[in-house]
Amino acid sequence: MKVIVDTSIWSLALRRKYYSPESHFLELLVEDFRVVMIGPIRQEILSGIADPKQLRNLKEHLSHFPDSSINTEHYELAAKFYNDCRKKGVQGSHVDFLICAVASYYDYSIYTIDKDFEYYSLHIPIKLLASSS
After folding, report:
1. SS3 string of the chain?
2. Domain count, the chain
3. What pLDDT, in 10s, does the model give residues 54-88?
4. What Cα–Cα distance (Å) separates residue 47 from each residue in 2, 9, 40, 103, 115?
5. pTM given for the model
């Protein structure tokens, strides 16, 4: 099964100086060609990198993961998910709900350490992937 890797995992793997279990699991997903990238996650990963050389290097590393296309249906589903969760008292970012919509639409899992996704999963049809999966 394909997996959308959330920014929280990429940050651990790419910007931290220590090796984490999440980073190791990401490596396994990459080796198995299971990682799916979407533009908003790419933007979040690249945002805030002030050093031009570091930014070029990171862009080069990420270039191996082409963006999955996002269309009107995904944005509409993201809005539905946002509204469904809000009715239940669960707030989230528009990017988070877009990630959820793309994952749900294509039957992908989401790999994240962001606890907000656990709350979303109580109200919308998404699958979260644990490091041990």
Report:
1. CCEEECHHHHHHHHHCCCCCHHHHHHHHHHHCCCEEECHHHHHHHHCCCCCHHHHHHHHHHHCCCCECCCCHHHHHHHHHHHHHHHHCCCCCCHHHHHHHHHHHHHCCEEECCCCHHHHHHCCCCCEEECCCC
2. 1
3. 999 999 999 999 999 999 999 999 999 999 999 99
4. 25, 15, 10, 23, 21
5. 0.93
Per-residue pLDDT of 7-28, as tens digits, reads 999 998 986 677 789 999 999 9
The Cα–Cα gap between 71 and 13 comes to 29
Domain that holds residue 36: 3-129
